[in-house]
Amino acid sequence: MSHSFARGAVLALCASGAVAFAQEAPRRALPDVTVTGNPLGDDDVSTPVQQLSGTGLLLRAQSSLGETLNATPGVSSTYFGPTASRPVIRGLDGDRIRILSNSGAAFDVSGVSYDHAVAVDPITIERIEVLRGPAALLYGGSAVGGVVNLIDNRIPRDPLDGTTGRAHFSLASGAREAAGAVHVDSGTDRYGLHADAYRRSSDDVAVPAALSCAPGGVPRLQRRICNSAAQAEGGAVGGSLFFDGGHLGASVSTHGSDYGAVAEDEATIRMRSTRYALEGEWRKPIGPFESVKLQASRTAYRHTEFDGGVPGTVFRTGGNDLRLQARHVPLGPLRGVVGLQVEATHFSAEGDEAFAPPSRTSQQALYAFEEAGIGDLKATFGGRIEQVRVRSLGDPLLARFPQADRSFQPRSVAAALNWKLAGEWQWSASVARTERAPRDYELFADGPHLATSAYEVGDATLSVERSVGVDTGVRWQRGTTRAELRAWATEFANYVTLYSTGTARDDLPVLAYRAARARFAGGEANGAVRLPAFAPGQWDLEWRADVVRATNRDTGEPLPRIAPARAGATLAWTHDAWGARLGGDAYAAQRRVPAGDLPTAGYTLWNAALTWKQQRGPVGLLWYARVDNLADKLASSASSILTQTQPGRVPLPGRSIKLGVQATF
């Protein structure tokens, strides 16, 4: 661990002065239920469920999902510029992380390529949950790394008497960004209606260094990330009918985004996505079941990549998802749910960057999640059986894409214990054996890929990816003071990822999807302590730390793009209508990289915020100011592929001041 990291960590842990933001209490809030953490609705879960909502989410939200969650213990980001960024959980990314919308499938191509953005804007989200453990099996082998559930109220789930809503507007200096959104809910005890709309517009992102840029072939230096400007807009309408014992609702939502692919000076992406969703629940007994829940969705997604304004490769994907889940009557101390999930998706890429053939994937799965408690000891366990078929449809114009057909039968099981010890202590542990079917591009890729600056080659002989993971931790809480420590490890028998072949094709290095034995291990810690009142108001010190270590056990080398160890703290203050925060996160240097990769230097990022609440009749106003990268530090992300393929081209954003207001009524 470097001296710079140690100094930064000490400074962060001793941070002083700052913002507090207690969760605001608007007149309408989402039901206080952890949707993914425990399908039985209990507050106690045996493995970590991290939640971000309310003012905490408002002050953390960025223009991408990955950057919004980046400071969460155990979560980093793929960071392909400010717009295209997916979460990385405990070193795992791509299609090992399942991103859900209200616990239902959300289809896009963000897992296929680092330069493809998630088809959602954080400004629309009301709560984010990050889950690991047995309950993750409900969502498939592709959730081996974890589940990120994005929760909104586009399908109302509870009756509402009257009309409520919220509106948000903000300006940020770093990217000259303007963003706004409006959400309105109305209804009675018999029906509920929802509508929302949003828009975000930003320029190139400011950084504390002069970077080269050559739009139109004219080179220049600028203190901004070249080609990082973006625009996004969308909205949704939805409604539900409530009846004695349940509800039935539907929604339609759209998202559009136009953004620069920062790996090139003039490459841009135009994305459009439309999602139709249906959801219903019957809460009265039906034979051996206490309740039954139905979810279904259909997504149509398309994005076009442009080079200098000329259309190039067109990516299309989409599919249908159906989930039927029933909660059975208690069997002695045993409570649980059983379910059926069916998915059918398609993918195509047409153009110069068609690195994978047109394909279709179908999946059928049966799963169960059970829980039994005796006194202070609770056990949970789950299992899932899948049938997955992946077909390459071939391409008559490209001989390198023949037709092919593969079938897989992944089977996954997991179990966990949660024990409330004497006093304020709680211990939990889990073990999971997970299998994941390889994706279409892992099997059939054969072409140049902009995001990796390489020629990618799949392996049609890949088998089901198998892993065994363990997680254990203790939690202590007394009043507002709390602490949690966790340690974990995951062993892969055949971890599938891109490896360098040492050869070149079409003037590009060849990267091939191969399977190797791999081990991921690490730990996380977080907590908060109420400080003595040395000035008016309430003072709290929040702290956090995490570390991931990943190794290719076949070669003994580190795996690429693993986030370094980090530690941070935030001093939070509240007094009447005011709140303030000052905090920092210190990142160690990442020198543990495979041969040929570049190490990254350590750095510390500071941030601050100030909030003020007002009540104007029926309208509550939350004014806020936020400063990101307070010291304007030049830094590069170790988990971004651009740090390796184009070092220095896309550093992390520089200092940015954001001013905003949120109104609730």
TrEMBL record:
Reading the lineage from the top rank, the first entry is Bacteria
Q: Does the keyword Zinc apply?
A: no
Which stretches are annotated as coiled coil?
A: none
Q: What is its main location?
A: membrane
Q: Which GO terms describe its molecular function?
A: siderophore uptake transmembrane transporter activity
User: GO CC terms on record?
Assistant: cell outer membrane
Question: Where in the cell is the protein located?
Answer: Cell outer membrane
Question: Which Gene3D superfamilies does the UniProt record give?
Answer: TonB-dependent receptor, beta-barrel domain (2.40.170.20), TonB-dependent receptor, plug domain (2.170.130.10)
InterPro entries listed in its UniProt record: Beta-barrel_TonB (IPR000531), Beta-barrel_TonB_sf (IPR036942), Plug_dom (IPR012910), Plug_dom_sf (IPR037066), TonB-dep_rcpt-like (IPR039426)
Q: Which UniProt keywords apply?
A: Cell outer membrane, Membrane, Receptor, Signal, TonB box, Transmembrane, Transmembrane beta strand, Transport
- Tell me the ranges covered by the TonB-dependent receptor plug domain, including all copies: 44-147
Task: Name the Pfam families on file.
Answer: Plug, TonB_dep_Rec_b-barrel
For the keyword Protein biosynthesis, the answer is no
Tell me the membrane topology, using the record's own terms. Multi-pass membrane protein
Residues annotated as signal peptide: 1-22
Q: Which GO terms describe its biological process?
A: siderophore transmembrane transport
Please state every residue range assigned to the domain named TonB-dependent receptor-like beta-barrel. 273-630
The record ties this protein, via PANTHER family, to: TONB-DEPENDENT OUTER MEMBRANE RECEPTOR, TONB-DEPENDENT RECEPTOR NMB0964-RELATED
Which family does the record claim for this protein? Belongs to the TonB-dependent receptor family.
What protein name does the entry list?
Answer: TonB-dependent receptor
**Which species is this record about?**
Ramlibacter algicola
